[in-house]
Amino acid sequence: MPNTRSQQATLIATNLPDNTSQDITPQDLRDVLNDGTTAAAFVDDTNTFTGNNVFDLQVQVQDGYIDCSPGNIELNDTGGLLPANSGSIAIGLGLSAPTSGDNCVIIGNQANQTSGDGNVLIGNTAGSSNTGDDIVAVGTNAGTNNSSDQSVAVGYWSLESNSADESIGIGPYAGQGNSGANLIAIGELAGQNNVSQDCIFIGKQAGQDNAGSSSRVIAIGENAGFQNDGEFNVFIGAEAGNTATTTQSVGVGYSSGSSNSGNNVTFIGASSGNANTGNAVVGVGISTANNNTGDDVVAIGKNALGQNTSDKCIAIGTDAGFQNTSPYAIFLGYQAGYAGGGVTQSNETGLVAIKTEYLPLFADHTAAENAITVPNGYVAGTTYLYRCQSSGSHQNYIGWVSL
Where are the domains of the chain? Predict the structure, then answer.
């Protein structure tokens, strides 16, 4: 600590010899006083700086140093570290000198970048060993070992060892080990170890371990797109697209498209398309087309075309076409063609199954025409189906009345 005014006065009195011999001139005294005031910053007796004191060198305060050399501001425990006139700020303990870097803000213990311009590093070891430019790293170990440019890391270990430019990792471990350019990863472990470019992962572990050749993937939801292996996919919902190996596919809903390996598929509904292997499949509803192996099929309704093994089928209704084995088949209605419901499949091509249980029943066509009329509330210009009880070869057939 510099001398107080009292200490400085005592020092002068002690060190100036007695002047009875007139060996000391007034000028000598002025020189001593001037040297004392320029050599030390005066503080008052309460150790408070007074006057306009200018420090030409760095100042040590207890175990720390203040250095405002031209172009830099530093407050640390090791003294001046920054390259001269770098326009940077460095505040923290355990900092080491970077090899280069201009216009940086470094705040945190051991936030030691190797090089890089225009970086903002805030947090314990944030940006340590960074060599990229225009980086923002906020959080413990955020952006450490980063070698990319123009990336943003916010969160514990986010974008650690990232090597891809223009990446964003927000959340603990988000984007850690990423090598795919233009990544957006938000959530704990989101996009961790991603190797593909132009991907968006939002949610805990969304897109984690996304494989190579899996570019332009969007996964939103916890574990959505986890270990996905395929490009141009969209997965929305927790577990959606989990471990999928597909391309140009969509899964919307909890676990939709999980473990799917078919391409060009669309699944909407919880657990729809799970373990599907068919291509060009559309499934809408809970658990539709689960374990389907047929191509070019459309399933609408809970469990519709579940465990289907044939191509080019359409099923509409809960359990419609479930366990179907007939190609080119059409199933309309609740449990229409449901093999598990007592219907014997014959593997016939072009099978059409309509659940008629809920169609109106009439004795014959005449009775149907007399009942299905506009005065009775039916709509003109509409065709209505009905079941007929006529005896003989026409028993239980399906008929229609057009108004």
Answer: 1-54, 253-355, 361-402
